[in-house]
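It is worth pausing here to work through a concrete case rather than discussing structure prediction in the abstract. The textbook approach is simple: state the sequence, then state the predicted structure, then interpret. We follow exactly that order.
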Amino acid sequence: MDSFAKDPEIQKHRWLILVAVCMFTFMSTLDGSIVNIALPVMSKDLKIPMNQSEWVVSIYLIVICALLLLFGKLGDAYGKIRIFKIGSILFTIGSLLCGFNSGLIFLLAARSLQAIGAAMTMSTNNGIITEVFPFSERGRALGTIGSFVALGSIAGPGIGGLILAHLPWGYIFLMNVPVGIIAILLGMKILPKDITLSKQKIDKTGSTLFALVMVTLFAGVFLGQEIGFAYPAVLVLFAVALVAFVWFIRTELHVEIPILDLRIFRNANFTISILCAFLIFVANFFFNVISPFYLENARGLAANYAGYALMTFPIVQVVVAPIAGAISDKIGPELLTFIGLILISISQIGYIFVGLSTPLWIFMFFVGLVGFGNGVFQAPNNSIVMNSVEVKDLGVAGGVNALARELGMIIGISVATTVLFSSMSHTAGHTVTSYVPSRPELFISGMHVAFMVSLAICLVATVITGVRMLRK
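Step two, the predicted structure:
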């Protein structure tokens, strides 16, 4: 068979294949957000300052961003399913090692191993599903993956809070192990052997330069948030990132087989969809950063109740995304992406008018609305991305798509905190770097400004998508 979609044996197991892929999609994205809520406990238990414990989160995101393109290209060259299987094993082993309380250095090394495995699964999951599912069902399948990405990205604080209420912090990692083993065994049984192999040589220079850009750029961002962006060490990291980025672009334009063929961005459908995915993940992480402050600090909710309220977002998206994907298979994805972006923008307007006396059900309505909008947007948008490239480039397309998501998470967190505390500082007349318990109105004013910025980001994505739809 020259295509998985024509193999009756593979088609018989296609939904089980989707289950195996979704398990690791969920766990790898969950581990980018679940650790945040455990940092105070980890800091106390490991006897380290809070700023050092934050590197447990940072190193995971940095390593993933650095390696996504490489593993996407390796998937195209030597088999996406092979790379996915190796990644699932490394992720599970890394999760097991993270659960051991053996000091910060050991934990960071284990998190790096876990991140390598996550990058391998993230960069190949969409490509595998695009190859396995026939065109008529592809939107629904990609929508299901998109819903698990959202669930993993947003559900971390809620799930982490429930685990920490009853168990030591190591269990936020150890819970991956039994799920990982089940997914590995299921994958060994039902995942087919790769048939689309380009066997192209890998652009080692481009891979190294791209990894250097990601490491130095985000090390500079995270370090700058700790000690200030004017420090020489931070400026040097940004300078190295800029030089490496220019060198990377020059290399990719002249090398015979680049790690990232920049011609892929000539495809307007691909580029617009990637840009919109990036912008919406930036906006989503404004919500992810600010909403716990609003519910727990400003409104005085207990952490578990705040977690339940925030779970409205992923639960609604999990329900809506596969339905939106199925509809996009029938009517096409462009209109649905536009509708989804309008709904997300309306939710940001709602957040701008939320205050201390706003009934919680109104706030939760807007949380559900943004989940609904994301569910309508993400699945068709993923379909556009994956259907706009040739089969031989599915790995790279999946890697770029996952990279847009991870960059959106990191930049969203960084910009949201910067805008929030800058606005609070401006209102207070002095520097503010955390929630001020005696002045909740200070936080509310900063929150409104932050969501105005988030709304502007959503409107950019909405306008771009609307213009594309009108031109079509």
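Step three, interpretation. The chain has a mean pLDDT of 84. The first helix runs from residue 8 to 12.
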